[in-house]
Structures are given as structure tokens and as C-alpha cells.
Amino acid sequence: xxxxxxxxxxxxxxxxxxxxxxxxxxxxxxxxxxxxxxxxxxxxxxxxxxxxxxxxxxxxxxxxxxxxxxxxxxxxxxxxxxxxxxxxxxxxxxxxxxxxxxxxxxxxxxxxxxxxxxxxxxxxxxxxxxxxxxxxxxxxxxxxxxxxxxxxxxxxxxxxxxxxxxxxxxxxxxxxxxxxxxxxxxxxxxxxxxxxxxxxxxxxxxxxxxxxxxxxxxxxxxxxxxxxxxxxxxxxxxxxxxxxxxxxxxxxxxxxxxxxxxxxxxxxxxxxxxxxxxxxxxxxxx
Length: 286
Prior knowledge:
Layout: E1 18-20, E2 23-25, E3 64-66, E4 79-83, H1 89-97, E5 101-107, E6 110-112, E7 126-129, E8 136-139, H2 144-160, E9 165-169, H3 184-200, E10 204-208, H4 214-217, E11 223-227, H5 239-243, E12 248-252, H6 261-267, E13 270-273, E14 283-284
Parallel strand pairs: 3-4, 4-5, 5-9, 9-10, 10-11, 11-12, 12-13
Antiparallel strand pairs: 1-2, 6-8, 7-8, 13-14
């Protein structure tokens, strides 16, 4: 929904390193991935990159969310969320060489007409068009027989390109006019399938929005990605992730940082302000 469009091994215990307020936390998943960070000292997105810091005290920076345009690898963020299809493998390699964690954006809940694989699913899986997002149509998430192999192919590509994890978008069709009679249980089943497919490929997985199911889904997901919880007074719903020591990557579009940073950083979120088209500029919370 964000991309508006031309937008393990065995029993190994895998750690995600979470740097929020200088505190490292680990969680058992099937892939290693550093998510989140501490204060952001850069003046502009074009500042020169720094080496991967050890802790917030040594200058960790917050995340970068860019789904449009050529990825600016010089942004001194610890974690990058970028588009699966539009980001070349060479860019992923460059970012990882700089010590960055790289997450691939994948729309798992709606079709996108401009994607090369958009015709791989039959029309019966497509529902109504997403409001304000032309060319995107909700999936019937009950059709896991069709959607599971489709998603597996996309997640395979994410792994092959060298990404560390996945931001799975549009996992809340049950709360929208999807064109299907979706229930909360339908969505829970589907979202857990999404998480399992990621973990089977040694990729971490982030729960995007779907705030009404956070308490149920937190055990299945490794971090959260949230849009505009401050604007809509919903940030408290993400507390299960914070209590579990899992990162919350938070972005606001319409509010200035003075309107939300004090609250969200106090909660332990990694908060930034971005333009809604998710181009390069960003304004991290101090």
C-alpha cells in the first residue's frame, strides 16, 4: 500500500539485535537480523555513512524507509526498508557491506498491476481496489492454496538477493472493504502463514499495522512496522512488541516530529518522519 507504483538452519537459535536506548535484546527466530537503533545525529539524508556502531551511545542511527527512486545508500541509517523488485542485488550487497540491515518490502495482501508477476494469480483472488492506491486490489487471503506458492516465490527472491528480512504489507484486509467476507480468523491464519514462509527461508518478518491483532500475532513476528499510530492515537496497541523486546519501526507522514517524538521514543519506538511517497528525505526523532 505504501508503494504507489511506478512502488535456517536446523535447530540454530537466531538472534535479532535490537538497539533502543542502548539496550540489546535478542529473540529466537530463524534468521539473524539487527533491527532498529538509537538517536540519529545526521543533519541531512545525504550525510556521509558511518561504520556500523556498537550501541546507541556510540552513535547508532534510526531506520530508513525508501520505496521510490534510486536507493540512497549514503543515508546513515542502521536499517533500510526498500522495495524487493526495484532494489538491485548490488545495492543490497553495498548496504550490507556498510553494516546495514536490509529489509525487503513485499505486498503480501494485495496485487499490484505493475509487478512482473502480477498475472501469476487468477482473477478470482483479486477483490476491490484499495482506496487511494490505484492498481492495487485486495487478495482473498482465504485462498492460501494459491497464495502460499506465490508468496514463497517472492520470498525466495528476497532471500536470493541477500535481504535480511521482510516487511509484509497489507495484512489487514479483514478490516477493509476487500470485496470478500474476511474474518479475523481468516486474517490470523494468513498472517501466520506469511510469517512461517519467511522463517522457513531464514528471513525475519515484520508485522505491518494490523493493530487489532498485535497481541495475537506478536509471537509469530520479529518486529513491527507502523504507519501513523501517533496521528490516530493508536501507539499503545504496539506495546506487546515492546514488552517482548522486539523493535517497532514507526513512521509518521502528516505530523511534525515535535508532535510525536516525545511520546513514541519514550515508548521505545524507532520513529521517523517521511514524505508519503517514501522517497529519500527523512527526519528521525532525536
